[in-house]
């Protein structure tokens, strides 16, 4: 994991790309549908979440591709630690550089949409719980489509449907809080999803990697 | 130590080899020879468990390698076609990570000494030539004396004479130490006199 972070530090542009993409996508909506505060406020949670989803997709393709190309993936497959652990560390590092920045910048986007200040907390917590799930689930897709021609498109087709529950729960939590209801239920479900994803997907990813690197 | 029985390999619907059996004991040196595309790399990948053979099995000290997994991985060094070094890191960082991944605890000084022996400059790998990258990867061998099995895919490709001699010396040393080495090549090397040859 230290290695992944080190690599990310040497390549700040990759991190910046995902983040800028998120900001730009989220900023396109007001331009497209007009600057009516009431309408913007009501679509804000959904827009922010969809932008986060797309931005997570954008960086997924690179998760294993570079390692596959230069042969380091083979060394990971032959590593002394169980492959699932290595994958979990890699995915966690991927989230730290692609997911965490989104969580941190989301309140800024929320300001743009004139979201009530009391919702910032729920929005940030929902993204904090949800974006790692996106990384973990996406890793399976990235491993499965490794080395395929047109893998990027296939990856989106595979992974986006699996992101739907996270999107519904995440955007739902913010919408609930906005309506003055308790968002705890949605957030707890997101937390449960995160725990399950962290516990099981690395092993699925590891199996997929073994298959696609044959 | 390593035994393979009736291995058969099929790639893309074409049978590369079949009925191949081999055994590598302590001190064994094996050269896998053959033309391009004859399955040399596939054989090595089967031996280290990266590729499943379409028939037959590989055993390490009597156990199937598929059931050993990491326990087997810890006992081998596989250096493939690609140098497995990251462009954005220095050779020392690369080597340190490779050893850590393989479960070897190495000192900073040992890493630097190994790279010095192979005269790899301390610049990011992106700025190194193909041969220097190769050297940076092969420097791992001088830190892997304790690992019994070495599987080397074209170890001498892209190396100049002095680096090639150094790799050959390391391999010879490892074999006298009681390790086992299998390597592929289609060129003649200084090791060929001592090696058993499998022609694919």
Provide the fold topology.
The complex is a heterodimer of chains A (214) and B (200).
Chain A: H1 2-10, H2 12-33, H3 37-60, H4 62-70, H5 72-77, H6 83-98, H7 100-112, H8 120-144, H9 151-178, H10 184-212
Helix pairs in contact in A: 1-6, 2-3, 2-7, 3-7, 3-8, 3-9, 6-8, 6-10, 7-8, 8-9, 8-10, 9-10
Chain B: E1 2-11, E2 14-24, E3 29-33, H1 40-48, E4 55-60, E5 63-64, H2 65-68, H3 70-73, E6 76-79, H4 91-101, H5 108-117, H6 130-138, E7 149-153, H7 161-176, E8 180-184, E9 196-199
Parallel strand pairs in B: 3-8, 3-9, 6-7, 7-8
Antiparallel strand pairs in B: 1-2, 1-4, 4-5
Helix pairs in contact in B: 4-5
Describe this structure in a few short sentences.
Chain A is an all-alpha fold. Chain A has ten helices and no strands.
Written overview of the protein:
The complex is a heterodimer of chains A (214) and B (200). Chain A is an all-alpha fold. Chain A is built from ten helices and no strands. The mean pLDDT of chain A is 87. Chain B is α/β, with parallel strands linked by helices and 200 residues long. Chain B has two domains: 1-75 and 148-200, Rossmann fold (3-Layer(aba) Sandwich), CATH 3.40.50.300; 83-147. Chain B is built from seven helices and nine strands. A five-stranded parallel beta sheet of chain B has the order 6-7-8-3-9, sandwiched between helices. The longest helix of chain B is centred in the last third of the chain and has 16 residues, at 161-176. Chains A and B meet through helix 1 and helix 5 of A and helix 4 of B.
């Amino acid at each position: 994991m230290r290695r992944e972070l080190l690599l990310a530090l040497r390549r700040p542009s990759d991190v910046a790309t995902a983040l800028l993409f998120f900001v730009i996508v989220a900023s396109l909506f007001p331009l497209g549908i007009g600057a009516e505060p009431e309408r913007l406020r009501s679509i804000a949670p959904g827009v922010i979440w969809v932008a986060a989803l797309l931005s997570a997709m954008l960086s997924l393709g690179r998760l294993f591709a570079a390692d596959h190309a230069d042969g380091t993936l083979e060394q990971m497959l032959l590593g002394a630690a169980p492959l699932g652990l290595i994958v979990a560390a890699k995915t966690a590092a991927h989230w730290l550089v692609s997911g965490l920045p989104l969580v941190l910048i989301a309140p800024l986007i929320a300001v743009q949409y004139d979201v009530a200040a009391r919702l910032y907390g729920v929005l940030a917590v929902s993204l904090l719980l949800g974006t790692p799930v996106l990384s973990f689930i996406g890793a399976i897709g990235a491993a499965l489509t490794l080395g395929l021609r047109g893998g990027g498109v296939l990856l989106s087709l595979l992974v986006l449907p699996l992101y739907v529950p996270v999107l519904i729960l995440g955007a739902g939590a913010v919408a609930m809080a906005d309506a003055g209801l308790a968002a705890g239920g949605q957030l707890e479900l997101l937390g449960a999803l995160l725990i399950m994803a962290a516990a099981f997907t690395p092993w699925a990813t590891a199996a997929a990697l073994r298959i696609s690197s044959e | 130590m390593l035994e393979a029985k009736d291995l058969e390999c099929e790639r893309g619907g074409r049978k590369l080899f079949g009925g191949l059996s081999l055994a590598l004991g302590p001190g064994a040196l094996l050269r896998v020879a053959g033309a391009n595309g004859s399955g040399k790399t596939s054989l090595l990948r089967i031996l280290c468990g990266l590729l499943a053979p379409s028939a037959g099995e590989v055993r390490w000290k009597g156990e199937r390698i598929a059931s050993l997994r990491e326990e087997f991985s810890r006992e081998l060094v596989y250096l493939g076609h690609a140098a497995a070094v990251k462009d954005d890191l220095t050779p020392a960082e690369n080597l340190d990570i490779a050893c850590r991944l393989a479960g070897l605890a190495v000192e900073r000084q040992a890493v630097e000494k190994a790279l010095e022996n192979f005269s790899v400059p301390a610049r990011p790998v992106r700025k190194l030539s193909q041969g220097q990258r190769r050297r940076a990867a092969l420097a791992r061998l001088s830190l892997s004396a304790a690992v019994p099995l070495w599987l080397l895919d074209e170890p001498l490709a892209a190396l100049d004479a002095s680096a090639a001699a150094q790799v050959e010396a390391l391999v010879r040393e490892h074999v006298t130490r009681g390790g086992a080495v299998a390597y592929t090549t289609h060129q003649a090397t200084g090791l060929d006199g001592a090696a058993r040859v499998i022609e694919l």
